[in-house]
UniProtKB/TrEMBL annotation:
Keyword hit for Signal: yes
UniProt KW keywords: Receptor, Signal
UniProt xrefs under InterPro entries: BUG, Bug_dom1
SUPFAM superfamilies: Periplasmic binding protein-like II
Domain of life: Bacteria
Protein name: Tripartite tricarboxylate transporter family receptor
Signal peptide: 1-21
Family matches, as PANTHER family: BLR1237 PROTEIN, TRICARBOXYLATE-BINDING PROTEIN
Family per similarity comment: Belongs to the UPF0065 (bug) family.
Length: 322
């Protein structure tokens, strides 16, 4: 009798969970961005959140939980209730954290349910507008000749700008003096103000400044030139072997009902075809991923392969956060 009762309870719970998933969502959803407001990942999140709100019929609210290179916000979501009302929008840092942080309080592969990829944002090498080199070739020669006399800004440990800087210094086989900031916004402010020399950051955070002539741009880290910046050569055109795109993905806490994940996946895919999203993305030098990439399977595959890729890069550089 006990086994029959237990089986009945399991069936009841499963049916109850299915009913809840069918009604989902019934209240606002919070998307945690593990970086400060105004940065490139925050920009992506707010565009997607607004479009998903229209589809889901509930407000999707962006909450900035910065600190510890994105691990603070990610850790908060990892331990949140897996009811679909707390999500995480994170970038490439999700794949670098397991190596950068030796005592990471969560496992990116087991503590989250993946929903889908969103976009891969190219990066640009830019400098204060009165920086001496004028072309990529001149920049490479100048960096090799001056090395640690050059200040390289980045948005903090684990940030995309730090990762790009690591790859750049590895490519030219020359270290520079790194200057960490608490976010891309303050770093870009000091580049514009001439307090630091150089940064490699996402087009979502540099395109406006490049077009306004507030910074000097050398190259974009994509395989082809960008329609929004047609005069800016690729890094490869300029003689630098550096291609990197900062991919973004959407996650829920592990164990989230598959029906809820499916609803969020469908909403994400719809958001990525929203005209306001595609138009603004294009203006910022990026594009939404395809429907086949905005899936749990594609994000899981990307995350798994990128963890291995960045483990080798970070271990070779010997740069750790703790």
């Amino acid at each position: 009798m006990k086994s029959i009762f237990a089986a009945g309870m399991l069936v009841t719970m499963a049916l109850s969970g299915t009913a809840l998933a069918q009604d989902y969502p019934t209240k606002p959803i919070t998307v945690v961005v593990p970086f400060s407001a105004g940065g490139p990942t925050d920009t992506v999140a707010r565009l997607v959140a607004e479009a998903m709100s229209q589809d889901l019929g509930q407000q999707v609210v962006v909450q900035n939980v910065g600190g510890a290179g994105g691990t603070l916000g990610a850790g908060q979501v990892a331990t949140a209730p897996n009811d679909g009302y707390t999500l995480l929008l994170h970038h490439i840092g999700m794949s670098t954290a397991p190596t950068l942080y030796r005592s990471l309080p969560y496992d990116p592969l087991t503590d989250f349910s993946t929903i889908g990829l969103i976009t891969s944002v190219p990066m640009t090498l830019v400098a204060r507008k009165d920086f001496e080199p004028n072309t990529m070739a001149e920049l490479l020669d100048y960096v090799k000749a001056n090395g640690e006399n050059i200040t390289y800004a980045h948005a903090g440990i684990g940030s995309a700008s730090q990762l790009c800087g690591m790859l750049f210094m590895e490519a030219v086989d020359t270290p520079m003096t790194t200057v960490p900031y608490q976010g891309s916004g303050p770093a870009m402010t000091d580049i514009i103000g001439g307090q630091v020399d150089l940064i490699c950051d996402q087009t979502t955070n540099t395109t406006s400044q490049i077009l306004a002539g507030e910074v000097k741009a050398y190259g974009v880290t994509s395989s082809t030139r960008l329609p929004t910046l047609p005069e800016l050569p690729t890094t490869r055109e300029g003689g630098l072997s550096l291609e990197i795109g900062v991919w973004h993905g959407l996650y829920a806490p592990a164990g989230t009902d598959p029906a809820i994940i499916a609803r969020l996946e469908a909403s994400l895919q719809k958001a990525l075809t929203n005209e306001s999203v595609t138009t603004r993305f294009a203006e910022l030098g990026t594009y939404p991923v395809t429907a086949a990439e905005a899936t749990p399977e594609a994000l899981t595959q990307t995350l798994t392969s990128q963890i291995e890729l960045w483990r080798a890069v970070i271990e070779a550089a010997g740069v750790y956060a703790d």
